[in-house]
Design brief:
The complex is a heterodimer of chains A (about 290) and B (about 270). By secondary structure, chain A is an all-alpha fold. Chain A has 11 helices and no strands. Classes of the chains: A mainly alpha (about 290), B alpha/beta (about 270). The structure holds adenosine-5'-triphosphate and magnesium ion. Adenosine-5'-triphosphate binds next to strand 2 and helix 2 of chain B. Magnesium ion binds next to helix 2 of chain B.
Chain lengths: ~290, ~270
């Protein structure tokens, strides 16, 4: 192209704008990052001093110096003991049905749409559902089972969608190879489809559990008591879990400032747990990606 | 005396020839509104190799996939007519596809081993048909791999993943996998189109071996391959069988002008 001053000027302008955009994007990204860093630094400086072995292994107490989160941790673990199997069973079965059995027609798209809708329903609504159905109708009160079932409904769409994607990613030629040898649908699912999609399903499971661990609103709606709870030892016991304890301690900090430190220490524990779970999910996803 | 024996041999050979394993009668097939197969009528005799040739899109894959009803995995597909497999109509509602596919095995165009070990790939068939005994499985795996001319190459690494094999080895593994359930018929849809010339030759030799025990239907784009491996050949065009004859006649002395044009490379 023949270069005249006019074109040169336009070129300069374009390069200038290009540079400007690049730096503004970087700047805006850094703002978001900075907020996150501030938050984490603040939580850590406030809570790290309180986070020791005693804090992890003592029971709740009104006295901030003696209070620990043993019961809270046990509550969270037991909650997962309910959420894990329930979502795994319902989630994987739903995904298998939708991907392998259901005819792609009206019923299929109706269920599919509703699952997507369910994923967008605010968690408070799930709390209300749990309150109505599990707490009141089935008389489960604010027990671990009631909380767990409520949480299961909340994270079910995540597991279903992730499992569906994993199942869909299994190449059709593997199914054909299996059917071509006279295998039934169930044999093909059990021996070919599920093993090949297991990493994706597991990733979805872990992500849904980590969502359930951090979720607060449904438990608040279920009416988890604010009282000091003993360490639960059965699934029918009342309980408290990490995020809800953080919430109560933050509320109580208005009266006793030290509760804020306990909340911060608990946040650290929660963040570490979530970090480990998400790393595990990413690890599994990367390790088993694309094997065909 | 010798003459007599020869005659008898010839007679039994002819009898065997006449034993029709797959008899396609007025088969029509539609994908939605599009008709892909029109009034197909073909007979395949026991322990014969039938080649199916024809230009791209003429319905070769559709036809061969009808023979083990894999084509019906596409919900758009509608079929009329009959395919008699050993005198039973494969489309009859009492004939389960699982039973049919145990008798009529298939080797696909692209090698498609399972993401499992070589051993598990071959043991898959017997396992889904209920064989659990380790010793029996071992025997079947070895025999199938031997029959697929792969045993010597893999016997020391049966537990390695099948995806570590070359394309040609993978295809022979897929053949071994098909042999493991001892079908009567083996369908092959362009089994060498993804392979190099040497692997192709190996598979062709293998087909010659296998026809001692199996009835084989092979789709191919390669005219020489059809001429080399098959006893009879069907030429497909636009979903119809234009010509069906024994291979030597069809290639040396075709009846139809279109067949001649195709095999001399004037179109397709
Ligand atoms: N899943 C499908 N849906 C709709 N039409 C199809 C489908 N599969 C094949 N067809 C049509 O059926 C006809 C026959 O296709 P088929 O795959 O059997 O041809 P082919 O002879 O095997 O071709 P090639 O040599 O390219 O493999 C074609 O016109 C094709 O467009
Ligand atoms: Mg084809």
């Amino acid at each position: 192209m023949k270069q005249n001053t006019d074109q040169m000027n336009r070129m300069k302008q374009r390069l200038l704008l290009n540079n400007l955009m690049k730096h503004s994007f970087l700047f805006l990204t850094l703002i978001a990052l900075a907020v996150l860093v501030i938050l984490i630094v603040q939580v850590f400086t406030q809570g790290i001093g309180w986070l020791d072995w005693n804090f992890l292994t003592s029971k709740l107490s009104l006295n901030p110096d003696r209070a620990g989160i043993l019961g809270v941790i046990v509550g969270t673990i037991l909650l997962m003991v309910v959420v894990g199997p329930v979502t795994m069973l319902l989630g994987i079965c739903t995904a298998i049905y939708l991907e392998e059995y259901a005819k792609k027609g009206r019923v299929h798209s109706f269920i599919q749409t509703n699952i997507s809708n369910l994923a967008g329903v605010p968690s408070v609504i799930f709390g209300l559902l749990g309150l109505t159905v599990f707490s009141r109708m089935f008389n489960l009160g604010s027990s671990i089972v009631a909380g767990g079932l409520t949480m299961s409904l909340l994270v079910l769409p995540i597991v279903v969608v992730a499992s569906q994607e994993a199942i869909r990613a299994v190449p059709q030629f593997l199914r054909e190879a299996s059917y071509g040898m006279g295998a039934t649908k169930w044999q093909t699912i059990r021996r070919i489809v599920l093993p090949a999609s297991l990493p994706g399903i597991l990733t979805g499971m872990i992500l849904s559990l980590s969502r359930a661990i951090g979720e607060t609103a449904p438990l608040v709606v279920l009416g988890i008591p604010v009282l000091i709870m003993p360490v639960p030892d059965s699934l029918m016991d009342d309980f408290t879990a990490l995020p809800i304890q953080i919430y109560y301690w933050t509320l109580d900090a208005v009266l006793t400032a030290e509760y804020a430190n306990l909340a911060a220490a608990t946040i650290i524990v929660l963040l570490i747990v979530l970090f480990i779970m998400n790393s595990a999910a990413i690890f599994i996803r990367n390790k088993f990606q694309k094997r065909y | 005396m010798i003459q007599l024996m020869e005659k008898e041999d010839a007679a039994t050979a002819a009898d065997q020839r006449n034993e029709i394993v797959l008899d396609t009668r007025e088969l029509n097939l539609w994908y939605g509104p599009e008709q892909a197969l029109k009034n197909i009528a073909l007979q395949m005799s026991e322990k014969q190799v039938t080649a199916i040739i024809g230009p791209s899109g003429c319905g070769k894959s559709t036809y061969i996939k009808s023979l083990n009803r894999m084509v019906e995995m596409n919900p758009l597909v509608r079929i009329t007519g009959q395919v008699m497999f050993k005198k039973r109509n494969i489309f009859h509602k009492n004939y389960s596809v699982e039973e049919l596919r145990t008798q009529v095995g298939m080797v696909f165009q692209k090698p498609n081993p399972f993401p499992k070990s070589i051993y598990e790939n071959v043991a898959y068939g017997p396992r889904i048909h209920g064989i659990r005994k380790k010793k029996l499985l071992d025997e079947i795996v070895e025999k199938s791999l031997r029959d697929a001319a792969l045993w010597d190459e893999v016997k020391d690494r049966l537990n390695e993943n099948a995806y570590g094999l070359s394309g040609g080895q993978q295809q022979r593994l897929c053949i071994a996998r098909t042999l493991s359930i001892e079908p009567e018929v083996i369908l092959m849809d362009e089994p060498t189109s993804a392979l190099d010339p040497i692997s192709t030759l190996k598979i062709e030799e293998l087909v010659q071996e296998l026809k001692q025990d199996y009835t084989i239907v092979i789709v191919t784009h390669n005219m020489q391959q059809a001429a080399r491996v098959s006893d009879q050949t069907a030429f497909f065009l636009n979903g119809e069988v234009v010509e069906f004859n024994d291979t030597v006649t069809l290639f040396s002395n075709p009846n139809d002008q279109r067949t001649e044009d195709y095999i001399t490379g004037r179109f397709g």
